[in-house]
């Protein structure tokens, strides 16, 4: 049975750990609120952008575009968006488990986040580019990533571009999602606007210089914006998962402190009882 000194040391160690996890929980909660607001705020704009693209395609009829057609390459390019750090529960494990499902010989990667880069190094998979991310990803950062993926696709070095990231559902739920960026599936536009009132058919819109040029510009911007939404969802998921993980760690530490305190009191009471018994036995022996 451990003595009271060992139990006191352990209680002090656990209490110090609880203070650290509590501080990390507060920091993650502060970042989480900003990241969640940024991730949710852009979803309405994304829907409006898709509605606009659908409307422009409607005016062009069945006209095709290179971004709607599969690429000429043999490999698949995967944009892997991961956190920079750990201590966020099972988020990294679930995300990298999905990344391991891609065929290594026919897949090349672009990473955003250090965890993905480290995993690719250990798995010995082909890494084309690595992009650092801030806590609040900007449109410039996302545009640099999407521009590189677009250049690889247009150059015929990959047949498709897929993004793997963690989609933010709510504070307690984050889901690893695999989504195809290129080629763009036109059916996505129709699915996104189902149940949403379309433009008035009698409304006449004039395109400058022409609908094809407008579609070209909108498709490129759509790709950039989709990557930005991916980064924002990934950051919101990371901070939410870390806040929940640190809260659970703090609660577990407090529970452990209560158990150790109870054990300390039992050991201390047993020691006092033994001392009383020894005194009583000594008195009886002297009587």
Structure notes:
- This protein has 287 residues and is α/β, with parallel strands linked by helices.
- It folds into two domains: 4-22 and 245-286, ATP synthase, gamma subunit, helix hairpin domain (Helix Hairpins, Orthogonal Bundle); 24-244, Pyruvate Kinase, Chain: A, domain 1 (3-Layer(aba) Sandwich).
- It is built from six helices and five strands; from the N terminus they run αβαβαβαββαα.
- The protein has helices at 4-60, 91-99, 114-123, 139-154, 187-192, 211-286, and strands spanning 76-81, 107-112, 126-131, 160-170, 173-182.
- The two termini are 33 Å apart.
Précis, in short:
The chain is of the alpha/beta class. It has helices at 4-60, 91-99, 114-123, 139-154, 187-192, 211-286, and strands at 76-81, 107-112, 126-131, 160-170, 173-182. It has a 5-stranded mixed sheet, sandwiched between helices.
Question: Secondary-structure blueprint of this entry?
Answer:
Elements lengths: L3 H57 L15 E6 L9 H9 L7 E6 L1 H10 L2 E6 L7 H16 L5 E11 L2 E10 L4 H6 L18 H76 L1
Parallel strand pairs: 1-2, 1-4, 2-3
Antiparallel strand pairs: 4-5
The count of β-strands is 5
Provide the CATH architecture of the largest domain: 3-Layer(aba) Sandwich
How would you state the average pLDDT, rounded?
83
Name the overall outline: elongated
CATH topology of the largest domain: Pyruvate Kinase, Chain: A, domain 1
The helicity comes to: 55-70%
State the low-pLDDT regions, or none.
Answer: 195-203
Given this structure, which CATH class of the largest domain is correct? Alpha Beta
In what range is the share of β-strand residues? 5-15%
The computed structural class is: alpha/beta
What's the number of domains?
2
Cα(first) to Cα(last) distance is 33 Å
Radius of gyration, Cα only, in angstroms?
Answer: 29 Å
The CATH homologous superfamily of the largest domain corresponds to: ATP synthase, F1 complex, gamma subunit
Please outline the major beta sheet.
5 strands, mixed
Order of helical and strand elements:
HEHEHEHEEHH
Q: In DSSP terms, counting alpha (H) and pi (I) runs of 4 or more, how many helices?
A: 6
Order of strands, main sheet, comes to: 3-2-1-4-5
């Amino acid at each position: 049975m451990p003595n009271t000194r060992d139990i006191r040391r352990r209680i002090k160690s656990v209490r110090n750990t609880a203070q650290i996890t509590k501080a990390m929980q507060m920091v993650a909660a502060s970042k989480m609120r900003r990241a969640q607001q940024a991730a949710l705020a852009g979803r309405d704009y994304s829907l409006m952008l898709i509605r606009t693209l659908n409307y422009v395609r409607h005016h062009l009829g069945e006209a095709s575009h290179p971004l709607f057609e599969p690429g000429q390459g043999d490999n698949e390019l995967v944009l892997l968006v991961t956190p920079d750090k750990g201590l966020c529960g099972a988020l990294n494990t679930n995300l990298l488990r999905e990344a391991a499902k891609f065929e290594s010989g026919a897949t090349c990667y672009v990473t955003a986040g250090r965890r993905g880069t480290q995993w690719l190094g250990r798995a010995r998979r082909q890494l084309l580019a690595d992009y650092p991310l801030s806590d609040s990803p900007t449109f410039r950062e996302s545009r640099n990533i999407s521009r590189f993926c677009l250049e690889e696709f247009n150059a015929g070095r990959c047949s498709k571009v897929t993004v793997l990231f963690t989609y933010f559902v709510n504070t307690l739920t984050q889901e690893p999602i695999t989504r195809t960026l290129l080629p763009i599936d036109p059916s996505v536009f129709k699915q996104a606007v189902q149940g949403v009132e379309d433009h008035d058919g009698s409304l006449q819109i004039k395109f400058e210089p022409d609908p094809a040029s407008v579609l070209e510009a909108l498709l490129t911007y759509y790709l950039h914006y989709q990557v930005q939404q991916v980064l924002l969802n990934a950051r919101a998921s990371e901070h939410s998962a870390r806040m929940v993980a640190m809260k659970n760690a703090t609660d577990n530490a407090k529970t452990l402190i209560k158990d150790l305190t109870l054990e300390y009191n039992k050991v201390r009471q047993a020691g006092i009882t033994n001392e009383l018994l020894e005194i009583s036995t000594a008195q009886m022996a002297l009587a």
